[in-house]
């Protein structure tokens, strides 16, 4: 519960948060059918002020997800198509000398938006990727010694195509750590795909999506989520989960403390989205895989056995006792 | 040289005053008598020296006696030669004799000290302390110069005094007195030593008669000498024969006089910082350490230490150890014995106690002190690996007739000491365990026919009452023995033997404890390795006329092999056991030996142990089944009631959750350790149905809120939680069926409260 509100207030705010969250999810789901869980994860990223890496094959709605989120929150969004010849300044913006004003003027790049879709980020050069990732972390662009903050809320939704890897520059592990979550959209189920086909000519489109909430609402929701109560045993549970990855036999690299912070931040949002003003172990368990898995490096021998980071997270979750209610 | 004869001296002149030799003495017959007298006095001195053979042995005393008897006699004869009709003054003879004695002992006994300048000091110490050394050493004493010097000086003085008396006086038998005095000293010091003295006494008597006869002709004519010599020889032979053959039959009443009884022996020393009894437990726990090896005629149990004094806490040896050359005095008891020779090589045996079979007779190759009472050997210094020695032991051979009519030992000093049960160091009153031990021993030995059977029954009872267990903590004071007899009933030989000893003492049986070893394992070529695991402890009981009889109350050790090692010793022990049994049976008129009566007190455990097992087997279901039913049916009810009435709403909510989990166990929920509350709810939904899912979901929300919301729960939430929980229980019952629920209720698992990884503070 927040320090400034009594319990009923917190509950009421949590209920309001849940209503908005639910409304946003419903709105987006009209476009991204059958992917409610992915949509909610993306929204959790938004309200956690984190960034989302969507890794999937083309045509499953990665870009549409980003655009629909932007449209739902009445936010400005930009899309950057990463190519090998994309320069950092193409992302961040440049300073141009204005002869009329006899001064350099900063021309913001496409990064200056609330929602930025970095399409096929692994096709950009490492230098350009670094420029983007610096902004993701610091939420400001520094050009000619002057800092230019990006607008709030700020969220980068980067996409990667895991199939066509020719001519790509895979993101280093250190930079993957900057993403709050990595999700895979996956193909829609049969019913959802039928619904997409049936509604294609006249169904909901991005252009027709009404905004569900304003940017101010989003800012307040972010502010509320950051103050959701976390009990002591939850902290302990999170730390034990993350620490368990560091000593896991199948991993070459475990999760960093940044992963613990990210997991807790996301869990707060999920708790608020469930109408609660407190985090429960369920929040941690549900978010553990999306938040932690992409930060892990699986050992080659484990990889040869077909083990992936998701399997390791599942192992860890199955081995760490959940904080329980103690009775008599 | 002249010797005035009393008959030739005027009345006014003393008989011993040196006077001019009369003409008769300077005659050829007088010279012969004089020299014969010197020969006889020298012979008497030599016989006196030989009488020390019981102290040092023949080989040591013969050369010393010869030198000490001959040299001063020759010197006296030379100095007594005629000097203007008068002999040399006596003081010159004495001074020269002293110088001659110093030279003689320096060149013979103390030759080794000539070069290092310690000669005067060593001779002085020898003259001063040799008598104490002899009287405090078991005979035969070692033939060391510092001890032999006493004999040397006594014989020398006897020979010198006898010669001077014979030369300077006309007394007939007075010259023999110094030698007789030395003979008396030798006899007194040799009391208890090996060998006998009648031949020497006979020789001395003959020489005395000869001296009297030879010197009786001093006033007569020289023509009667051959006649007197003939008569004298006949009389000497007759007297000597009489002493030799009749002497041993002279009845002597009372105890013989032994000067050692008048000597205060050195006080007993703490000969070893650790009692061998205290080492038993450690040896048994690491049984493979080779302590010593033995090459013996026949394998025996090797006796290490005899502990006959108990102070309530520890068993120690009360023996006053005496140094010995090699001989160990024999035991006081009669009985058939067999000599067994052993060559022992020390390996890792700690302490000063020297192992040997039964009663040693002699020890060679190692400086030892001996307890003359029980024959225990101890080294002067702690044993070192590689030391080797040879022991000849006299092993008692038991037979059935030994145990016929055995009676209780009379209360001599040794027996009284072996009956003591002190209160313990610092105790203000007698420990209560002694009375309990006495009652126990009397109960075990009730109806026994004599002291032998009492001891046998104690032995048999202990062997069946308790078990051999090397892991039991060592210790044998009253409390530990009470624990051993009353509760644990497990022990090492230390416990069995000391318990037997204490119980036997309460019955008035003089008892001691012996620490020793089994014969050991054969290592080829007649060699046996005795290891730490071979250690044994046994008690011995003293019976009148029989001495100390060993008993073995320790039961056989489970799983111990090595039967071949114990064959010979086993034969001896088996013969002993069989002899005791036969004798006891015959004493009871041929009736079989009654088995020991199981005790009823003080040990309740013993009483329970005597009850047949089937009694417990039959009674246990009658008691256990109803108890179990009550437990599995009542405990869950009590637990639920306690949960529902917990102190705070949060605890009541948690209790409701625990109750719901127990309900779900009836449909297969095995663990919730890594499950969240909603995961459990989903499980319940799948297993029981959607209604249960709804109730469990609501209950999970309440539990999560109570646990993690950071705010106190209210009473309504607690009530709601119990409503959901009860509803879950009802749904589970409907789903699983009452029969299944009853089976689960009857399962022992229902007694166990779910334990969680952590606890929480109630808010």
Automatic annotation (TrEMBL), chain A:
CDD domains linked: AAA
InterPro entries referenced in this protein's UniProt entry, alphabetically: ATPase_AAA-3, CbbQ/NirQ/NorQ/GpvN, ChlI/MoxR_AAA_lid, P-loop_NTPase
Protein origin, superkingdom: Bacteria
Taxonomy of the source species: Bacteria, Bacillati, Actinomycetota, Actinomycetes, Streptosporangiales
Protein name: MoxR family ATPase
Organism of provenance: Actinomadura alba
Domain ATPase AAA-3 residue range list: 51-181
Alphabetical list of SUPFAM superfamilies matching this protein: P-loop containing nucleoside triphosphate hydrolases
Domain ChlI/MoxR AAA lid: 244-313
From TrEMBL, chain B:
Pfam families: DUF4129, TgpA_N, Transglut_core
Protein name: DUF3488 domain-containing protein
Transmembrane segments: 35-52, 58-81, 88-110, 147-167, 174-193, 199-217, 229-250, 613-635
Domain Transglutaminase-like: 485-555
InterPro entries hit by this protein: Bact_TGase-like, Papain-like_cys_pep_sf, TgpA-like_C, TgpA_N, Transglutaminase-like
Organism per entry: Actinomadura alba
UniProt-annotated stretches for the region Disordered: 256-276, 578-605
PANTHER family reported for this sequence: PROTEIN-GLUTAMINE GAMMA-GLUTAMYLTRANSFERASE (PTHR42736)
Keyword entries, A-Z: Membrane, Transmembrane, Transmembrane helix
């Amino acid at each position: 519960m927040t320090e400034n509100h009594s319990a009923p207030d917190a509950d009421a705010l949590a209920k309001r948060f849940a209503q908005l969250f639910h409304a946003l999810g419903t709105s987006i789901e009209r476009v991204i059918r059958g992917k409610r869980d992915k949509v909610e994860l993306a929204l959790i990223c938004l309200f956690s002020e984190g960034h989302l890496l969507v890794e999937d094959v083309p045509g499953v709605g990665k870009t549409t997800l980003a655009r629909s989120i932007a449209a739902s929150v009445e936010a400005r969004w930009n899309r950057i198509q990463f190519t090998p010849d994309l320069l950092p300044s193409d992302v961040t913006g440049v300073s141009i000398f204005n002869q009329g004003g006899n001064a350099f003027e900063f021309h913001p790049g496409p990064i200056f938006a609330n929602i930025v879709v970095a399409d096929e980020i692994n096709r950009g050069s490492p230098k350009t990727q670094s420029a983007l990732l610096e902004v993701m972390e610091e939420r400001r662009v520094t050009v000619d010694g002057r800092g230019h903050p990006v607008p709030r809320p700020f969220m980068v939704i980067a996409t990667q195509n895991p199939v066509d890897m020719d001519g790509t520059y895979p993101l280093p592990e250190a930079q993957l750590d900057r993403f709050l979550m990595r999700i895979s959209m996956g193909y829609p189920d049969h019913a959802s795909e039928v619904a997409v086909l049936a509604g294609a000519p006249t169904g909901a489109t991005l252009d027709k999506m009404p905004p569900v909430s304003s940017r101010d609402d989003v800012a307040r929701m972010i502010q509320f989520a950051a103050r959701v109560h976390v009990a002591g045993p939850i902290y302990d549970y999170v730390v034990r989960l993350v620490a368990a990855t560091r000593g896991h036999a199948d991993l070459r690299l475990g999760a960093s403390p940044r992963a613990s912070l990210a997991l807790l931040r996301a869990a707060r949002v999920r708790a608020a989205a469930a109408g609660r003003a407190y985090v429960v172990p369920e929040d941690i368990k549900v978010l553990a895989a999306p938040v932690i898995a992409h930060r892990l490096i699986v050992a080659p021998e484990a990889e040869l056995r077909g083990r992936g980071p998701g399997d390791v997270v599942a192992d860890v979750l199955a081995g760490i006792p959940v904080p329980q209610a103690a009775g008599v | 040289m002249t010797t005035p004869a009393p008959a030739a001296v005027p009345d006014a002149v003393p008989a011993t005053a040196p006077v001019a030799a009369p003409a008769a003495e300077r005659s050829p017959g007088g010279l012969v008598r004089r020299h014969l007298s010197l020969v006889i006095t020298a012979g008497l001195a030599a016989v006196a020296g030989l009488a020390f053979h019981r102290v040092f042995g023949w080989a040591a005393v013969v050369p010393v006696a010869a030198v000490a008897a001959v040299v001063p006699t020759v010197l006296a004869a030379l100095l007594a030669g005629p000097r203007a009709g008068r002999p040399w003054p006596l003081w010159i003879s004495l001074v020269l004799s002293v110088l001659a004695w110093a030279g003689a002992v320096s060149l013979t006994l103390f030759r080794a000290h000539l070069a290092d300048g310690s000669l005067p000091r060593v001779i002085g110490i020898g003259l001063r302390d040799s008598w104490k050394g002899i009287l405090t050493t078991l005979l035969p004493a070692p033939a060391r110069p510092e001890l032999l010097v006493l004999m040397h000086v006594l014989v020398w003085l006897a020979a010198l005094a006898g010669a001077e008396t014979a030369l300077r006086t006309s007394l007939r038998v007075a010259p023999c007195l110094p030698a007789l005095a030395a003979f008396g000293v030798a006899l007194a010091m040799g009391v208890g030593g090996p060998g006998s003295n009648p031949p020497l006494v006979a020789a001395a008597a003959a020489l005395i008669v000869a001296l009297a006869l030879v010197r009786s002709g001093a006033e007569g004519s020289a023509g009667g000498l051959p006649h007197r010599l003939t008569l004298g020889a006949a009389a000497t032979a007759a007297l000597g024969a009489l002493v030799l053959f009749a002497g041993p039959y002279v009845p002597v009443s009372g105890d013989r006089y032994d000067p050692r009884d008048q000597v205060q022996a050195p006080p007993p020393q703490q000969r070893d910082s650790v009692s061998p009894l205290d080492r038993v437990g450690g040896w048994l726990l690491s049984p493979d350490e080779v302590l010593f090896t033995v090459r013996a005629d026949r394998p025996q149990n090797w006796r290490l230490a005899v502990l006959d004094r108990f102070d309530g806490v520890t068993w120690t040896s009360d023996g006053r150890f005496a140094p010995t050359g090699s001989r160990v005095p024999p035991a006081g008891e009669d009985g058939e014995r067999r000599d067994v020779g052993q060559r022992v090589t020390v390996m890792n045996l700690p302490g000063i106690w020297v192992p040997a079979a039964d009663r040693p007779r002699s020890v060679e190759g190692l400086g030892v002190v001996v307890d003359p009472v029980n024959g225990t050997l101890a080294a002067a210094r702690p044993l070192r690996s590689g030391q080797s020695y040879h022991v000849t032991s006299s092993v008692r051979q038991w037979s059935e007739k030994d145990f016929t009519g055995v009676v209780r030992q009379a209360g001599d000093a040794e027996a009284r000491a072996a009956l003591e049960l002190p209160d313990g160091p610092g105790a203000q009153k007698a420990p209560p365990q002694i009375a309990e031990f006495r009652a126990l021993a009397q109960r075990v030995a009730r109806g026994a026919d004599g002291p032998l059977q009492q001891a046998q029954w104690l032995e048999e009872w202990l062997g069946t009452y308790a078990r051999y267990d090397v892991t039991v903590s060592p210790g044998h004071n009253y409390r530990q023995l009470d624990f051993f007899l009353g509760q644990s009933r497990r022990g090492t030989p230390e416990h069995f033997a000391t318990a037997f000893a204490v119980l036997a003492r309460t019955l008035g049986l003089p008892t001691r404890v012996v620490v020793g070893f089994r014969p050991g394992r054969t290592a080829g070529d007649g060699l046996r390795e005795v290891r730490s695991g071979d250690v044994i402890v046994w008690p011995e009981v003293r019976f009148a006329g029989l001495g100390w009889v060993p008993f073995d109350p320790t039961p056989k050790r489970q799983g111990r092999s090595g039967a071949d090692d114990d064959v010979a010793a086993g034969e001896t022990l088996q013969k002993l056991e069989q002899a005791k049994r036969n004798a006891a049976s015959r004493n009871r008129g041929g009736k079989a030996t009654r088995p020991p009566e199981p005790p009823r007190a003080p040990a309740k455990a013993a009483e329970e142990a005597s009850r047949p097992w089937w009694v417990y087997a039959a009674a246990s279901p009658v008691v256990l089944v109803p108890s179990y039913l009550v437990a599995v049916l009542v405990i869950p009810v009590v637990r639920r009631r306690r949960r529902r009435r917990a102190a705070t709403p949060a605890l009541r909510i948690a209790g409701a959750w625990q109750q719901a989990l127990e309900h779900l166990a009836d449909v297969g929920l095995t663990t919730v350790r890594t499950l969240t509350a909603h995961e459990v709810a989903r499980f319940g939904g799948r297993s029981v149905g959607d209604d249960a899912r709804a109730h469990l979901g609501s209950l999970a929300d309440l539990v999560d809120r109570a646990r993690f919301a950071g705010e106190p729960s209210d009473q309504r939430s607690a009530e709601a939680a119990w409503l959901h929980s009860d509803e879950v229980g009802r749904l589970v019952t409907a789903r699983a069926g009452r029969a299944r629920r009853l089976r689960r209720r009857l399962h022992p698992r229902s007694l166990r409260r779910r334990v969680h990884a952590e606890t929480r503070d109630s808010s």
